[in-house]
Amino acid sequence: MTCLTWEKPTIKKMNVNNDYIEIYDTTLRDGTQGEGFSLSIDDKLMIAEILDELGIHFIEGGFPASNSKDRNFFELASKKKFKNSRLVAFGSTRRKNGSAKDDAGLRALNETGIKYLAIFGKSWDLHVKSILKISLNENLDMIADSIDFLKHEGKTVFFDAEHFFDGFKNNEGYAVKSINIALEAGANKVILCDTNGGSLPHEISKMIKRLNLHYGIDLNKLGIHCHNDIDCATANTITAALGGINHIQGTINGYGERTGNANLSIVIPNLELKMRLKAIGEDKLKDLVKISRLIDEIANNIPVKNMPYVGESAFAHKAGMHAHAVLKNPSSYEHIEPTLVGNHRRFLISDLSGKSNIEAKAKEIGFDLSKLTASQETELLNKIKELEGRGFNFESADGSFKIFLNRYSLANDNKNTGGECFKEYFKLLAFRVNVEKTTGNNIFSEAVVMIEVKSKAEHVVAVGDGPVNALDNALRKALVKFYPVLNEMKLTDFKVRVIRSSKAKSGTASYVRVLIESSDKEDKWTTLGVSENIIEASYMALVDGIIYKLDKEMVKAGNK
Fold this sequence. Notes:
TIM Barrel, Double Stranded RNA Binding Domain, 3 domains, eight-stranded parallel beta barrel, 18 helices, elongated
Protein backbone atom coordinates (compact mmCIF):
# COMPACT_ATOMS: atom_id res chain seq x y z
CA MET A 1 0.00 0.00 0.00
CA THR A 2 1.39 3.41 -0.96
CA CYS A 3 1.85 5.85 1.89
CA LEU A 4 1.53 9.44 0.75
CA THR A 5 3.20 12.38 2.46
CA TRP A 6 1.28 14.48 4.92
CA GLU A 7 -0.44 17.33 3.11
CA LYS A 8 0.07 20.45 5.17
CA PRO A 9 -3.15 22.50 5.22
CA THR A 10 -3.02 26.17 4.46
CA ILE A 11 -3.15 28.09 7.75
CA LYS A 12 -3.29 31.83 7.58
CA LYS A 13 -1.69 33.94 10.25
CA MET A 14 -4.27 35.08 12.80
CA ASN A 15 -5.23 38.71 12.60
CA VAL A 16 -4.03 39.79 16.05
CA ASN A 17 -2.00 42.76 17.22
CA ASN A 18 1.03 40.81 18.41
CA ASP A 19 3.50 39.12 16.08
CA TYR A 20 5.85 37.95 18.83
CA ILE A 21 4.84 36.11 21.99
CA GLU A 22 6.81 36.04 25.24
CA ILE A 23 6.68 32.66 26.97
CA TYR A 24 6.99 32.75 30.75
CA ASP A 25 7.35 29.34 32.37
CA THR A 26 6.44 28.83 36.02
CA THR A 27 6.92 25.06 36.26
CA LEU A 28 9.63 25.49 38.92
CA ARG A 29 7.33 27.54 41.15
CA ASP A 30 3.64 27.18 40.33
CA GLY A 31 4.19 23.66 38.96
CA THR A 32 5.76 22.46 42.19
CA GLN A 33 2.60 23.45 44.06
CA GLY A 34 0.84 20.54 42.37
CA GLU A 35 0.17 17.40 44.37
CA GLY A 36 2.85 14.77 43.85
CA PHE A 37 5.21 17.17 42.05
CA SER A 38 8.41 17.67 44.03
CA LEU A 39 11.85 18.74 42.81
CA SER A 40 15.26 18.85 44.42
CA ILE A 41 17.63 21.76 43.78
CA ASP A 42 19.49 19.63 41.23
CA ASP A 43 16.18 18.77 39.53
CA LYS A 44 15.28 22.45 39.31
CA LEU A 45 18.67 23.38 37.88
CA MET A 46 18.39 20.63 35.30
CA ILE A 47 14.88 21.68 34.26
CA ALA A 48 15.95 25.34 34.03
CA GLU A 49 18.69 24.35 31.58
CA ILE A 50 16.22 22.25 29.59
CA LEU A 51 13.74 25.14 29.38
CA ASP A 52 16.56 27.41 28.25
CA GLU A 53 17.36 24.95 25.44
CA LEU A 54 13.69 25.00 24.42
CA GLY A 55 13.88 28.78 24.03
CA ILE A 56 11.60 29.81 26.91
CA HIS A 57 11.99 33.55 27.47
CA PHE A 58 11.39 33.71 31.23
CA ILE A 59 11.83 30.98 33.85
CA GLU A 60 10.22 31.61 37.22
CA GLY A 61 12.50 29.67 39.54
CA GLY A 62 10.80 29.83 42.92
CA PHE A 63 9.76 31.77 46.00
CA PRO A 64 12.98 32.62 47.89
CA ALA A 65 11.22 34.21 50.85
CA SER A 66 9.30 31.00 51.55
CA ASN A 67 12.09 28.40 51.74
CA SER A 68 15.85 27.93 51.75
CA LYS A 69 15.78 25.51 48.80
CA ASP A 70 14.60 28.24 46.45
CA ARG A 71 17.16 30.69 47.85
CA ASN A 72 19.89 28.13 47.18
CA PHE A 73 18.50 27.51 43.72
CA PHE A 74 18.85 31.17 42.74
CA GLU A 75 22.34 31.32 44.20
CA LEU A 76 23.41 28.40 42.01
CA ALA A 77 21.34 29.27 38.94
CA SER A 78 22.60 32.85 38.82
CA LYS A 79 26.09 31.46 38.15
CA LYS A 80 24.96 29.63 35.03
CA LYS A 81 24.93 31.19 31.59
CA PHE A 82 21.54 30.86 29.97
CA LYS A 83 21.38 31.33 26.21
CA ASN A 84 17.70 32.15 25.76
CA SER A 85 16.06 32.52 29.15
CA ARG A 86 15.99 35.07 31.96
CA LEU A 87 15.49 33.88 35.52
CA VAL A 88 12.63 35.34 37.55
CA ALA A 89 12.29 35.23 41.34
CA PHE A 90 8.79 35.25 42.81
CA GLY A 91 7.36 36.97 45.87
CA SER A 92 4.49 39.11 47.12
CA THR A 93 3.71 42.71 47.87
CA ARG A 94 4.77 43.98 51.27
CA ARG A 95 2.85 43.04 54.37
CA LYS A 96 0.16 45.35 55.70
CA ASN A 97 1.05 48.03 58.27
CA GLY A 98 4.65 48.25 57.09
CA SER A 99 6.91 49.66 54.41
CA ALA A 100 8.42 48.01 51.35
CA LYS A 101 12.02 48.86 52.26
CA ASP A 102 11.64 47.10 55.62
CA ASP A 103 9.68 44.09 54.35
CA ALA A 104 11.49 40.77 54.83
CA GLY A 105 9.93 39.17 51.75
CA LEU A 106 10.89 42.00 49.41
CA ARG A 107 14.39 42.12 50.89
CA ALA A 108 14.75 38.37 50.23
CA LEU A 109 13.73 38.98 46.63
CA ASN A 110 16.16 41.85 46.25
CA GLU A 111 19.02 39.90 47.81
CA THR A 112 18.79 37.08 45.26
CA GLY A 113 20.64 39.35 42.84
CA ILE A 114 18.10 38.37 40.15
CA LYS A 115 17.15 41.29 37.90
CA TYR A 116 13.67 40.01 36.96
CA LEU A 117 11.16 39.78 39.81
CA ALA A 118 7.48 38.84 40.00
CA ILE A 119 5.27 39.86 42.90
CA PHE A 120 1.61 39.11 43.41
CA GLY A 121 -1.00 41.35 44.98
CA LYS A 122 -4.75 41.43 45.42
CA SER A 123 -7.10 42.76 42.74
CA TRP A 124 -10.28 41.19 44.09
CA ASP A 125 -11.93 43.27 46.78
CA LEU A 126 -13.23 40.11 48.48
CA HIS A 127 -9.64 39.09 49.30
CA VAL A 128 -8.74 42.58 50.46
CA LYS A 129 -11.66 42.76 52.86
CA SER A 130 -12.05 39.13 53.97
CA ILE A 131 -8.52 37.71 53.80
CA LEU A 132 -6.13 40.63 54.32
CA LYS A 133 -8.76 42.52 56.37
CA ILE A 134 -7.52 45.92 55.30
CA SER A 135 -9.06 48.86 53.48
CA LEU A 136 -9.18 48.91 49.69
CA ASN A 137 -6.91 51.97 49.61
CA GLU A 138 -4.30 50.32 51.84
CA ASN A 139 -4.10 47.39 49.43
CA LEU A 140 -3.45 49.81 46.58
CA ASP A 141 -0.72 51.46 48.68
CA MET A 142 0.87 48.05 49.26
CA ILE A 143 0.96 47.42 45.50
CA ALA A 144 2.41 50.82 44.62
CA ASP A 145 4.95 50.88 47.48
CA SER A 146 6.27 47.38 46.68
CA ILE A 147 6.72 48.00 42.96
CA ASP A 148 8.24 51.43 43.53
CA PHE A 149 10.79 49.97 45.97
CA LEU A 150 11.89 47.21 43.56
CA LYS A 151 12.06 49.58 40.60
CA HIS A 152 14.35 51.91 42.56
CA GLU A 153 16.55 48.86 43.18
CA GLY A 154 16.93 48.54 39.41
CA LYS A 155 14.65 45.55 38.96
CA THR A 156 12.35 44.57 36.10
CA VAL A 157 9.01 43.90 37.79
CA PHE A 158 6.10 41.69 36.80
CA PHE A 159 2.99 42.32 38.89
CA ASP A 160 0.63 39.35 39.19
CA ALA A 161 -2.87 40.75 39.66
CA GLU A 162 -4.12 37.78 41.67
CA HIS A 163 -7.78 36.79 41.13
CA PHE A 164 -8.10 39.57 38.55
CA PHE A 165 -10.98 38.10 36.55
CA ASP A 166 -13.03 37.23 39.64
CA GLY A 167 -12.28 40.70 40.95
CA PHE A 168 -13.38 42.27 37.66
CA LYS A 169 -16.69 40.41 37.80
CA ASN A 170 -17.29 41.45 41.43
CA ASN A 171 -16.00 45.03 41.41
CA GLU A 172 -14.81 46.10 37.98
CA GLY A 173 -13.71 49.57 39.00
CA TYR A 174 -11.47 48.36 41.82
CA ALA A 175 -9.89 45.53 39.79
CA VAL A 176 -8.98 48.01 37.05
CA LYS A 177 -7.69 50.48 39.61
CA SER A 178 -5.34 47.82 41.05
CA ILE A 179 -3.64 47.20 37.70
CA ASN A 180 -3.49 50.92 36.84
CA ILE A 181 -1.79 51.58 40.20
CA ALA A 182 0.75 48.87 39.39
CA LEU A 183 1.47 50.34 35.95
CA GLU A 184 1.78 53.86 37.35
CA ALA A 185 4.27 52.58 39.96
CA GLY A 186 6.45 51.25 37.14
CA ALA A 187 5.49 47.59 36.69
CA ASN A 188 6.94 46.38 33.40
CA LYS A 189 4.08 43.95 32.95
CA VAL A 190 0.82 43.37 34.79
CA ILE A 191 -0.26 39.75 34.63
CA LEU A 192 -4.00 39.12 34.63
CA CYS A 193 -4.50 36.00 36.74
CA ASP A 194 -7.43 33.62 36.67
CA THR A 195 -6.26 32.26 40.00
CA ASN A 196 -9.35 30.19 40.81
CA GLY A 197 -9.44 28.90 37.24
CA GLY A 198 -13.18 29.40 36.95
CA SER A 199 -13.49 31.76 33.98
CA LEU A 200 -14.69 30.83 30.50
CA PRO A 201 -13.02 31.94 27.25
CA HIS A 202 -15.81 34.31 26.23
CA GLU A 203 -15.55 36.04 29.63
CA ILE A 204 -11.76 36.40 29.29
CA SER A 205 -12.21 37.85 25.80
CA LYS A 206 -14.85 40.35 26.90
CA MET A 207 -12.86 41.60 29.89
CA ILE A 208 -9.58 42.03 27.96
CA LYS A 209 -11.39 43.90 25.20
CA ARG A 210 -13.02 46.20 27.77
CA LEU A 211 -9.64 46.92 29.42
CA ASN A 212 -8.30 48.07 26.08
CA LEU A 213 -11.25 49.85 24.51
CA HIS A 214 -13.02 51.33 27.54
CA TYR A 215 -10.13 51.94 29.93
CA GLY A 216 -7.43 52.57 27.32
CA ILE A 217 -4.92 50.12 28.84
CA ASP A 218 -2.10 49.14 26.47
CA LEU A 219 -2.35 45.37 25.94
CA ASN A 220 1.42 45.20 25.41
CA LYS A 221 1.71 45.96 29.13
CA LEU A 222 -0.41 42.95 30.09
CA GLY A 223 0.14 39.22 30.43
CA ILE A 224 -2.09 36.20 31.12
CA HIS A 225 -1.83 33.49 33.80
CA CYS A 226 -4.60 30.89 33.95
CA HIS A 227 -5.40 27.95 36.19
CA ASN A 228 -7.28 24.91 34.95
CA ASP A 229 -10.09 24.28 37.42
CA ILE A 230 -12.76 24.02 34.73
CA ASP A 231 -10.39 22.68 32.05
CA CYS A 232 -10.27 26.03 30.25
CA ALA A 233 -6.78 27.30 31.17
CA THR A 234 -5.27 26.56 27.77
CA ALA A 235 -8.32 27.87 25.89
CA ASN A 236 -8.36 31.02 28.04
CA THR A 237 -4.66 31.59 27.34
CA ILE A 238 -5.15 31.25 23.59
CA THR A 239 -8.15 33.58 23.84
CA ALA A 240 -5.96 36.20 25.54
CA ALA A 241 -3.37 35.89 22.79
CA LEU A 242 -6.10 36.30 20.18
CA GLY A 243 -7.20 39.42 22.07
CA GLY A 244 -3.74 40.97 21.69
CA ILE A 245 -1.85 39.95 24.85
CA ASN A 246 1.69 38.91 24.01
CA HIS A 247 3.00 37.70 27.38
CA ILE A 248 1.88 34.12 28.08
CA GLN A 249 2.41 32.22 31.33
CA GLY A 250 2.00 28.53 32.05
CA THR A 251 3.77 25.30 32.94
CA ILE A 252 5.17 22.42 30.92
CA ASN A 253 2.60 19.59 30.82
CA GLY A 254 0.13 21.75 32.76
CA TYR A 255 1.58 21.05 36.20
CA GLY A 256 0.27 23.18 39.05
CA GLU A 257 -1.86 23.50 42.14
CA ARG A 258 -5.23 21.68 42.24
CA THR A 259 -5.95 20.85 38.58
CA GLY A 260 -2.92 22.64 37.17
CA ASN A 261 -2.03 25.62 35.01
CA ALA A 262 -2.25 26.50 31.34
CA ASN A 263 -0.32 23.76 29.57
CA LEU A 264 2.61 25.22 27.62
CA SER A 265 3.10 21.87 25.88
CA ILE A 266 -0.21 22.64 24.16
CA VAL A 267 -0.24 26.45 24.19
CA ILE A 268 3.12 26.85 22.42
CA PRO A 269 2.33 24.66 19.37
CA ASN A 270 -1.10 26.26 19.12
CA LEU A 271 0.55 29.69 18.95
CA GLU A 272 3.18 28.55 16.48
CA LEU A 273 1.29 26.17 14.22
CA LYS A 274 -2.31 27.30 14.42
CA MET A 275 -1.98 31.07 14.90
CA ARG A 276 1.34 31.54 13.07
CA LEU A 277 2.71 33.63 15.93
CA LYS A 278 6.39 33.34 16.83
CA ALA A 279 6.99 32.06 20.35
CA ILE A 280 10.02 29.76 20.50
CA GLY A 281 10.35 29.17 16.76
CA GLU A 282 9.49 26.09 14.73
CA ASP A 283 13.04 24.68 14.92
CA LYS A 284 12.91 24.49 18.72
CA LEU A 285 9.32 23.28 18.57
CA LYS A 286 10.65 19.95 17.26
CA ASP A 287 12.17 19.33 20.72
CA LEU A 288 8.84 19.77 22.53
CA VAL A 289 7.99 16.08 22.97
CA LYS A 290 11.49 15.24 24.16
CA ILE A 291 11.47 18.04 26.72
CA SER A 292 7.91 17.33 27.89
CA ARG A 293 8.81 13.72 28.65
CA LEU A 294 12.21 14.55 30.09
CA ILE A 295 10.62 16.88 32.65
CA ASP A 296 8.10 14.14 33.49
CA GLU A 297 11.02 11.78 34.03
CA ILE A 298 12.95 14.21 36.25
CA ALA A 299 9.81 14.78 38.34
CA ASN A 300 9.18 11.01 38.45
CA ASN A 301 5.73 11.44 36.89
CA ILE A 302 4.07 9.20 34.32
CA PRO A 303 3.49 11.06 31.03
CA VAL A 304 -0.17 11.58 30.11
CA LYS A 305 -0.64 9.37 27.06
CA ASN A 306 -3.52 11.27 25.50
CA MET A 307 -2.10 14.78 25.98
CA PRO A 308 -2.50 16.77 22.74
CA TYR A 309 0.64 17.24 20.64
CA VAL A 310 3.14 15.58 23.02
CA GLY A 311 1.30 12.50 24.29
CA GLU A 312 2.23 9.03 23.11
CA SER A 313 -1.34 8.60 21.83
CA ALA A 314 -1.61 12.03 20.19
CA PHE A 315 -1.04 10.53 16.74
CA ALA A 316 -2.04 6.92 17.42
CA HIS A 317 -4.59 5.24 15.15
CA LYS A 318 -6.63 2.26 16.30
CA ALA A 319 -9.74 1.96 14.14
CA GLY A 320 -9.07 0.10 10.88
CA MET A 321 -10.88 2.71 8.79
CA HIS A 322 -8.72 5.48 10.26
CA ALA A 323 -5.49 3.61 9.65
CA HIS A 324 -6.52 2.89 6.06
CA ALA A 325 -7.20 6.58 5.44
CA VAL A 326 -4.02 7.78 7.16
CA LEU A 327 -1.90 5.47 5.01
CA LYS A 328 -3.37 7.14 1.94
CA ASN A 329 -3.24 10.69 3.26
CA PRO A 330 -2.17 11.40 6.88
CA SER A 331 -3.99 14.74 6.97
CA SER A 332 -7.28 12.83 6.78
CA TYR A 333 -7.03 12.07 10.52
CA GLU A 334 -4.11 14.23 11.72
CA HIS A 335 -4.27 17.97 12.24
CA ILE A 336 -0.48 18.44 11.87
CA GLU A 337 2.56 16.44 10.83
CA PRO A 338 3.68 14.80 14.14
CA THR A 339 7.37 15.54 13.56
CA LEU A 340 6.69 19.28 13.83
CA VAL A 341 6.56 18.82 17.61
CA GLY A 342 8.96 15.88 17.75
CA ASN A 343 6.24 13.21 17.93
CA HIS A 344 5.57 10.31 15.60
CA ARG A 345 2.67 8.41 14.10
CA ARG A 346 1.66 5.08 15.65
CA PHE A 347 -0.72 2.33 14.62
CA LEU A 348 -2.43 0.26 17.32
CA ILE A 349 -3.45 -3.36 17.17
CA SER A 350 -6.70 -4.47 18.80
CA ASP A 351 -10.01 -6.17 18.09
CA LEU A 352 -10.95 -2.98 16.21
CA SER A 353 -8.07 -3.43 13.79
CA GLY A 354 -8.32 -4.01 10.08
CA LYS A 355 -5.68 -5.14 7.60
CA SER A 356 -4.40 -1.58 7.27
CA ASN A 357 -3.59 -1.45 10.99
CA ILE A 358 -1.66 -4.72 10.80
CA GLU A 359 0.33 -3.61 7.75
CA ALA A 360 1.06 -0.17 9.18
CA LYS A 361 1.98 -1.44 12.64
CA ALA A 362 4.24 -4.11 11.16
CA LYS A 363 6.00 -1.46 9.07
CA GLU A 364 6.30 0.84 12.09
CA ILE A 365 8.22 -1.80 14.07
CA GLY A 366 10.36 -2.78 11.08
CA PHE A 367 8.53 -5.89 9.91
CA ASP A 368 7.70 -6.79 6.31
CA LEU A 369 4.42 -8.63 5.70
CA SER A 370 4.61 -8.34 1.92
CA LYS A 371 5.24 -12.09 1.51
CA LEU A 372 1.89 -12.98 3.07
CA THR A 373 -0.97 -13.82 0.75
CA ALA A 374 -4.38 -12.19 1.12
CA SER A 375 -5.75 -15.30 2.83
CA GLN A 376 -2.77 -15.38 5.21
CA GLU A 377 -3.33 -11.71 6.08
CA THR A 378 -6.97 -12.49 6.87
CA GLU A 379 -5.90 -15.47 8.97
CA LEU A 380 -3.38 -13.28 10.81
CA LEU A 381 -6.01 -10.63 11.52
CA ASN A 382 -8.42 -13.25 12.86
CA LYS A 383 -5.72 -14.74 15.12
CA ILE A 384 -4.94 -11.29 16.53
CA LYS A 385 -8.61 -10.59 17.20
CA GLU A 386 -8.99 -13.98 18.85
CA LEU A 387 -6.05 -13.24 21.16
CA GLU A 388 -7.37 -9.74 21.90
CA GLY A 389 -10.68 -11.33 22.84
CA ARG A 390 -8.82 -13.50 25.37
CA GLY A 391 -7.26 -10.45 27.00
CA PHE A 392 -4.04 -9.93 25.03
CA ASN A 393 -3.48 -6.24 24.40
CA PHE A 394 -0.89 -5.85 21.66
CA GLU A 395 -1.26 -2.08 21.43
CA SER A 396 0.59 -1.88 24.75
CA ALA A 397 3.16 -4.57 23.97
CA ASP A 398 5.13 -3.98 20.78
CA GLY A 399 7.70 -6.58 21.83
CA SER A 400 5.20 -9.45 22.05
CA PHE A 401 3.50 -8.29 18.86
CA LYS A 402 6.79 -8.37 16.95
CA ILE A 403 7.52 -11.90 18.26
CA PHE A 404 4.01 -12.99 17.27
CA LEU A 405 4.44 -11.59 13.74
CA ASN A 406 7.85 -13.17 13.40
CA ARG A 407 6.58 -16.60 14.44
CA TYR A 408 3.53 -16.39 12.20
CA SER A 409 5.46 -15.17 9.17
CA LEU A 410 8.24 -17.75 9.51
CA ALA A 411 5.73 -20.52 10.08
CA ASN A 412 4.03 -19.66 6.78
CA ASP A 413 7.34 -19.27 4.94
CA ASN A 414 8.46 -22.74 6.03
CA LYS A 415 5.14 -24.54 6.10
CA ASN A 416 6.01 -26.79 3.17
CA THR A 417 9.80 -26.90 3.50
CA GLY A 418 10.08 -29.12 6.54
CA GLY A 419 12.69 -26.72 7.93
CA GLU A 420 12.85 -24.93 11.27
CA CYS A 421 10.07 -22.37 11.49
CA PHE A 422 11.83 -20.14 13.97
CA LYS A 423 14.65 -20.13 16.47
CA GLU A 424 13.72 -21.89 19.71
CA TYR A 425 16.26 -20.62 22.24
CA PHE A 426 15.11 -22.81 25.11
CA LYS A 427 12.31 -25.10 26.21
CA LEU A 428 10.52 -24.97 29.55
CA LEU A 429 10.42 -28.25 31.47
CA ALA A 430 8.98 -26.88 34.72
CA PHE A 431 9.07 -23.97 37.12
CA ARG A 432 8.02 -23.46 40.74
CA VAL A 433 7.76 -20.27 42.79
CA ASN A 434 7.54 -20.15 46.58
CA VAL A 435 6.70 -17.16 48.75
CA GLU A 436 7.40 -17.60 52.43
CA LYS A 437 6.98 -15.27 55.39
CA THR A 438 9.78 -15.76 57.91
CA THR A 439 10.39 -14.46 61.44
CA GLY A 440 10.76 -10.71 61.65
CA ASN A 441 7.96 -10.23 59.09
CA ASN A 442 10.37 -10.80 56.19
CA ILE A 443 8.98 -12.04 52.88
CA PHE A 444 11.16 -14.62 51.14
CA SER A 445 10.66 -15.45 47.43
CA GLU A 446 12.36 -18.37 45.70
CA ALA A 447 12.00 -19.66 42.13
CA VAL A 448 13.09 -23.02 40.70
CA VAL A 449 13.35 -23.31 36.91
CA MET A 450 14.02 -26.39 34.79
CA ILE A 451 14.67 -25.68 31.11
CA GLU A 452 16.36 -27.31 28.16
CA VAL A 453 18.93 -25.17 26.34
CA LYS A 454 20.83 -26.44 23.30
CA SER A 455 20.00 -30.04 24.26
CA LYS A 456 21.21 -29.52 27.84
CA ALA A 457 18.96 -29.59 30.89
CA GLU A 458 19.40 -26.73 33.34
CA HIS A 459 17.99 -26.84 36.87
CA VAL A 460 18.53 -23.59 38.81
CA VAL A 461 17.29 -21.90 41.97
CA ALA A 462 17.22 -18.16 42.58
CA VAL A 463 15.77 -15.74 45.10
CA GLY A 464 14.34 -12.29 44.57
CA ASP A 465 12.54 -9.32 46.10
CA GLY A 466 9.25 -10.85 45.01
CA PRO A 467 8.00 -13.90 43.10
CA VAL A 468 8.35 -12.29 39.66
CA ASN A 469 11.81 -10.96 40.42
CA ALA A 470 12.85 -14.43 41.69
CA LEU A 471 11.48 -16.06 38.52
CA ASP A 472 13.30 -13.51 36.36
CA ASN A 473 16.56 -14.13 38.24
CA ALA A 474 16.19 -17.90 37.83
CA LEU A 475 15.56 -17.67 34.11
CA ARG A 476 18.57 -15.42 33.56
CA LYS A 477 20.76 -17.64 35.74
CA ALA A 478 19.87 -20.64 33.60
CA LEU A 479 20.32 -18.85 30.27
CA VAL A 480 23.14 -16.36 30.65
CA LYS A 481 26.00 -18.84 30.18
CA PHE A 482 24.47 -19.82 26.83
CA TYR A 483 23.45 -16.27 25.90
CA PRO A 484 25.83 -13.80 27.66
CA VAL A 485 24.14 -10.89 25.88
CA LEU A 486 21.28 -11.19 28.41
CA ASN A 487 23.57 -9.46 30.92
CA GLU A 488 22.82 -6.22 29.00
CA MET A 489 19.09 -6.56 29.59
CA LYS A 490 17.15 -5.36 32.62
CA LEU A 491 13.52 -5.28 33.71
CA THR A 492 12.39 -1.66 34.08
CA ASP A 493 8.64 -1.80 34.72
CA PHE A 494 5.95 -4.30 35.75
CA LYS A 495 2.19 -3.79 35.52
CA VAL A 496 -0.76 -6.04 36.31
CA ARG A 497 -4.33 -5.57 35.10
CA VAL A 498 -7.30 -7.72 36.12
CA ILE A 499 -9.40 -8.75 33.12
CA ARG A 500 -13.04 -9.66 33.48
CA SER A 501 -13.78 -13.16 32.26
CA SER A 502 -17.12 -14.89 31.78
CA LYS A 503 -15.52 -18.08 33.14
CA ALA A 504 -14.36 -16.45 36.34
CA LYS A 505 -16.62 -17.04 39.32
CA SER A 506 -15.13 -14.21 41.38
CA GLY A 507 -12.77 -11.26 41.09
CA THR A 508 -9.85 -13.30 42.40
CA ALA A 509 -10.46 -15.94 39.72
CA SER A 510 -10.39 -13.45 36.85
CA TYR A 511 -7.75 -13.44 34.17
CA VAL A 512 -4.83 -11.08 34.63
CA ARG A 513 -2.71 -9.32 32.04
CA VAL A 514 0.93 -8.69 32.92
CA LEU A 515 2.96 -6.10 31.04
CA ILE A 516 6.72 -6.07 31.50
CA GLU A 517 9.02 -3.37 30.13
CA SER A 518 12.61 -4.41 29.47
CA SER A 519 15.55 -2.40 28.19
CA ASP A 520 19.17 -2.63 27.13
CA LYS A 521 21.75 -0.03 26.14
CA GLU A 522 19.93 0.74 22.90
CA ASP A 523 16.18 0.66 23.39
CA LYS A 524 13.25 -0.63 25.42
CA TRP A 525 10.39 -3.00 24.66
CA THR A 526 7.19 -4.21 26.31
CA THR A 527 5.93 -7.77 26.41
CA LEU A 528 2.82 -9.34 27.88
CA GLY A 529 1.28 -12.49 29.24
CA VAL A 530 -2.32 -13.41 30.03
CA SER A 531 -3.48 -16.17 32.37
CA GLU A 532 -5.76 -16.95 35.30
CA ASN A 533 -2.52 -17.32 37.27
CA ILE A 534 -0.48 -14.14 37.79
CA ILE A 535 2.82 -16.08 37.98
CA GLU A 536 2.16 -17.86 34.70
CA ALA A 537 1.21 -14.56 33.04
CA SER A 538 4.42 -13.05 34.41
CA TYR A 539 6.44 -15.99 33.09
CA MET A 540 4.95 -15.52 29.60
CA ALA A 541 5.85 -11.83 29.61
CA LEU A 542 9.37 -12.50 30.94
CA VAL A 543 10.04 -15.15 28.29
CA ASP A 544 8.81 -12.87 25.49
CA GLY A 545 11.13 -10.15 26.80
CA ILE A 546 14.10 -12.52 26.63
CA ILE A 547 13.13 -13.83 23.18
CA TYR A 548 12.80 -10.25 21.89
CA LYS A 549 16.34 -9.49 23.04
CA LEU A 550 17.78 -12.69 21.56
CA ASP A 551 15.93 -12.20 18.25
CA LYS A 552 17.30 -8.67 18.06
CA GLU A 553 20.86 -9.85 18.65
CA MET A 554 20.48 -12.61 16.05
CA VAL A 555 19.35 -10.06 13.47
CA LYS A 556 22.29 -7.80 14.34
CA ALA A 557 24.72 -10.70 13.99
CA GLY A 558 23.21 -11.63 10.61
CA ASN A 559 23.63 -8.07 9.36
CA LYS A 560 27.34 -7.94 10.20
